[in-house]
Amino acid sequence: MSTPNHVAHAPPSPLKGSQLSMGTLALSLAVFMNVLDSSIANVSIPAISGNLGVSPQQGTWVITSFAVANAISVPLTGWLTTHFGQVRLFLASILLFVISSWLCGMAPNIETLIAARILQGAVAGPMIPLSQSLLLASYPPAKSGMALALWGMTTLVAPIMGPLLGGWISDNYSWPWIFYINIPVGLFTAWATWSIYRKRESAIRQLPIDKLGLFLLVLWVGALQLMLDKGKELDWFNSGEIILLTAVAVVGFIYFVIWELGQDHPVVDLSLFKGRNFTAGVIAISIGYGLFFGSLVIMPLWLQTQLAYTATEAGKVMAPVGVFAILLSPVIGKILPKVDARRIASLAFMIFALVFYLRSRFTTEVDTLHLMIPTLIQGAAMAMFFIPLTSIVLSGQPPEKIPAASGLSNFVRIMCGGMGASIMTTLWDSRSTLHHAQLSEHTGSAYTAFVQSVQGLMQQGLPETGAYAVLDRSISVQASTMAATDLFWMSAFMFLGLITLVWLTKPKKSAAAVDAVGAH
Fold first, then answer.
1. Cβ 392 vs Cβ 502: under 8 Å
2. For residues 74 and 125, is the Cβ–Cβ distance under 8 A?
3. Is-same-fold flag (15-209; 271-428+485-520)?
4. In terms of Cα–Cα distance, which of 137, 245, 241 is closest to 197?
5. Rounded (5°) CA angle 396-397-403
6. N or C: which end of the chain has fewer CB within 10 A?
């Protein structure tokens, strides 16, 4: 957004030849490293939590802390860019990401690791939007679609590589290496970026920052996430700490909204929610992403802690999600200007509903092939999910509002991802306890099947206590599986419900909306 004291800078001319190739590679690697780190830890949680002496549920803080810190820092990208310049900020983001990755690997306990992940998520915030803007400026306008397709492919390859790489490293080396691999990639990316882009710096302006707004944002989001993460551990609202965190989150949020609506330079432009397309689109993409991200956390945990999969095997089960995502994304990008985006988004939610319905039918006897089929299908939904919904969110926005709208929608989406992971793991744990109690009601001397099972195990040489332990473990596996399928069933219906939100929008056909899918 321009101001009277802003001196206009002519946009830099597009890059050519080897500089264009190297610039595209460097920017893509930065995005790859960033997105990889949001998924690489998912299959490594059992290894991390076991090594640091905490439960897998506490281990999920490693994921949610990164997501929330990342969400909070995204809205600041615009102000930081005008203050420092996009190239300097991008370079600083990469180098700080490398340092925080090293700190993650060196962490001696879960508290230090979570602190390092918060730092890592915070400094990663500007990396994705700035990589988009630098990449678009590197290509001529006629080839901006190709630039965004290359960028989009990177964001889809990383979630496939994350579980595979994380699982392989956890099984063959040690979990700190899932963070150490960022160091050589980050240093190369920083060197290439500075070599190519240092003379292409954006205009710098001194704008005031909404300090109180930023403080309130960190306060209510942090309190909400802590409440969700510690709720199970502290027995929810029977705990004074949880009640206090809830009160801080609610009061902080109310004050935040009131304060931001009255600011000339708000840290988050809440006036955007006056638009129906923006509001309905953001809610749909955020809840959908929360359900999707929650399942990315639950699936590897369930496979490893209950079905005895190794981290590598769990990674292989999650990997096929990228096949259709990569193949279909360029096609969706090409046909989007010609087709109603609401139709594509609705189809995406229908496919997501099918995927989660198939998962709701899993049993403890499920084989790897049947685990992989829904994951493979889910890739098609991903390709039809992000691009059309982002175009709906940005449709009808004036050009000067596009960066703010993109930043705010990404903030809400990423925050909902972190919340989705917390809520899913909490529900999974509570439903597992419920099913375990219900199944245990059918044990004891009054139940013939149970008595026969105990006798059969004892005939195989187990002592009576050992037989009871084996059966209790079997009940636990069954209960956890039933709890996971409950969540998948619930998610399937929620995805169908999100279609209603999509059709509350009325996207306006405008080149700016489609082009701006990746403009920030």
1. yes
2. yes
3. yes
4. 137
5. 150
6. N
Superfamily of domain 271-428+485-520: MFS general substrate transporter like domains (1.20.1250.20)
Nearest to 186 by CA among 94, 86, 93, 116: 94
Count of beta carbons in the 10 Å neighbourhood of residue 291 = 24
Cβ within 8 Å of residue 434, ≥6 positions away: 479, 483
Give the C-alpha separation, 439 to 434, whole Å. 9
Closest CA to 417 of 277, 310, 288: 288
CA separation for the pair 465, 513 (Å, rounded):
66
In the three-class reduction of DSSP (H, G, I as helix; E, B as strand; rest coil), residue 442 is classed as coil
> Is the pLDDT confidence value at 84 over 50?
yes
CB 112 within 8 A of CB 56: no
Nearest CA to 109 out of 160, 48, 197 is that of 48
Cα–Cα dist 119/268, whole Å: 21
Residue with tokens 């969540």: 487
Pseudo-torsion of CA 130, 136, 138, 142, nearest 10°?
180
Q: What is the pLDDT of residue 107?
A: 87
pLDDT over 60 (residue 517): no
DSSP 102-123: HHHHH-SSHHHHHHHHHHHHHH
d(CA 312, CA 105): 19
Confidence of residue 179 (pLDDT cuts 50, 70, 90): confident
In the block, tokens 């996207």 appear at 507
In the chain, % of residues over pLDDT 70: 86
In angstroms, the CA 103 to CA 80 distance is: 24
- The torsion region of residue 419 among left (phi > 0), alpha (psi -120 to 50) and beta comes to alpha
Position 286 pLDDT exceeds 70: yes
Q: Which residues of 423-458 are buried (b: 16+ CB within 10 A; e: fewer)?
A: bbbbbbbebbeebbeebeeebeeeeeebeebbeebe
- Which residue shows structure tokens 């990589």? 131
Average pLDDT over residues 332-346: 81
**Integer Cα distance of 252 and 248 in angstroms:** 6
Q: What average pLDDT does the segment 251-262 reach?
A: 88
**pLDDT > 50? residue 3:** no
**Using CA atoms, how far apart are residues 370 and 317, in angstroms rounded to an integer?**
10
Contact status, residue 290 vs residue 419, Cβ threshold 8 Å: yes
Architecture of the structural domain at 15-209: Up-down Bundle (1.20)
Backbone φ, ψ for residue 415 (5° rounding) = -65, -40
